[in-house]
Amino acid sequence: MSYTMKQYDMQDDATRRKVFWLLKRLTSYSLWEKKRDAWEVFTKAFENAVKTWPESDPEHMQADDLPRIYDILSLYNKGLPELAKGYRFIWREGQAFELAHTNANVVARYLYTDGNYWDHGSQMAPYPPKVEALNKLMLASKYDGDQAPLEILYLPHTTAYWTGPGNLLNPESYKYGFYELPYPVFPELLPEVPDGSDTIIQSGQTVPADGIWEPVKMEQDKVLGIIPTGEKTVSNNGCFNYFVRETKAPKLTGKYNNATSRYDNISTHWRLLWEDTRYKDGIIPDESEYFLEAKPTVVSPDLTTTPPADVRTGELCPASGLWAAKGYNSPPIQILEGRVMPDLMVRQVGEMRVHFVTWQFVKPV
């Protein structure tokens, strides 16, 4: 798909609707609940890896990481009930969701520090299969742009997350070195963008309300180019951003300055476009539109694909499908990719006993 400048132009109605919808999605209760649920799955799988993968295994996980991973889950559990009541301070510096987001990034950078795959906090090569299975579970908790509501401290080098809409709308922005985050599926009918309120602040001033804010230019006609006259006009000056109440309105990233070899930060006015009052009545509305699935494409089956290798109880499932316990007369069971392979209850001398078994792939489902 090709993307024209108009599709990235904040004067274009379709672009404005998409950015507005995306920011509401990224700050919704349902999305952060899904982040929390996915992190819990990863936490349990990581703990199982620590307990069952022998230290002699070159892919073994570091037990020292487990307290941080559980702490992140606790932070999600602490923040969700607050968001369910319409409290959004949880995204401020040092609060539950900000800490969870920051620490999750640390876990991601240091998940597997084998020198053949990692260097100075960056992944350098595709992870080995068992590690990659864990990595996929961790990435399931990440949504591109999910930093949208986090507080931006008003410092000389900090600016708003988005000056233009490209990083939100361009599918290429969802692709990283060794993984790709799912591009959101937009509803067929996107809601109109509000006209905006009379609430206007400047960079550095305190944000008076949670919600989506639009950077704007304030202009006024002048007599002889000197004396202001008439009403001020307000026009768009960049991409919408989401701000939490009582934070400081940030600057925007300006043009690249060759003299300083950096981008200039520019002050702007911000107009409240939409105040976020969701969940303050104690009700979580239907937010299923934020998680629509793309229509499946018909792909011819690849009959040459090699089935996944056998795995043992306690290892991670390498492929979703039906799996059968080798050497036991028990029906196959469906297991999802990334889940821990189960044990098997077998009757012996009248009692049901737990057996660690080898699982063989039967067929995809």
Notes on the protein architecture:
By secondary structure, this protein is of the alpha+beta class. 24% of the residues lie in helices and 21% in strands. The protein has three domains: 120 residues, Substrate Binding Domain Of Dnak, Chain:A, Domain 2 (Up-down Bundle); 83 residues, no CATH class; 53 residues, no CATH class. Strands 3, 4, 5, 6 and 9 form a five-stranded antiparallel sheet that branches. Strands 10-15-11-12 form a four-stranded antiparallel sheet, with no helix packed on it. The chain has a two-stranded antiparallel sheet with strand order 1-2. Helix 2 packs antiparallel against helix 5 and helix 3 packs antiparallel against helix 4. The protein is elongated. The two termini are 31 Å apart.
